[in-house]
Amino acid sequence: MPYAIRTATEADAPTIARLHLASYRAAYRGLLPDAFLAAYDVSERERRWRESLHDPTRTTFVAESGSAIAAFAEISSTGELKALHVAETHWRQGIGGALHARAVHALKAAGLQSAVLWVLNGNRRACTFYEAVGWLPTGETRHRILRGTEVTELRYRLQWP
């Protein structure tokens, strides 16, 4: 199915919030406790996305399939791929790869020489995807407490000539 990639606007916040939660729950099912995943609230996510879409140090891109947003990616001016989420119904259809390419292009265009991202330890689908498009694990980890649940994340780096 054809899709278009564009920069997100504040009007996209509710849709991005719903997609974020659905994608998060699908991707992390079995990696994080069910109660943890269920506790996320769409209004809280929408508030966070409204703030992020107004933050001049962040850029969010959305990929539309037809008239619906099927994926989003967020980057920061510091060179971090902060998020890349695809609706489960669009997994393995190339939309994530195209959106990733758009995000990396924007980072390069900003004059950055490399980028980093963090992946939840155990998220093999994400690790496989990122490694296939050139990201390399740095060996660094970070441990965080999210809503009372300890998570470990793995750091990846992408460098370009």
TrEMBL record:
* Native source species: Actinomadura napierensis
Protein name according to UniProt:
GNAT family N-acetyltransferase
Q: Give the N-acetyltransferase domain ranges.
A: 3-161
Q: PANTHER family, per this entry?
A: ACETYLTRANSFERASE (PTHR43877:SF1), AMINOALKYLPHOSPHONATE N-ACETYLTRANSFERASE-RELATED-RELATED (PTHR43877)
User: Acyltransferase as a keyword?
Assistant: yes
> Which keywords belong to this entry?
Acyltransferase, Transferase
Q: Which InterPro entries match?
A: Acyl_CoA_acyltransferase (IPR016181), Bact_Acetyltransf (IPR050832), GNAT_dom (IPR000182)
Which one Pfam family would you cite for this protein? Acetyltransf_1
The family database entries (PROSITE patterns) matched by this protein are listed as:
GNAT
Record-linked Gene3D superfamilies: 3.40.630.30
Tell me the superkingdom of the source. Bacteria
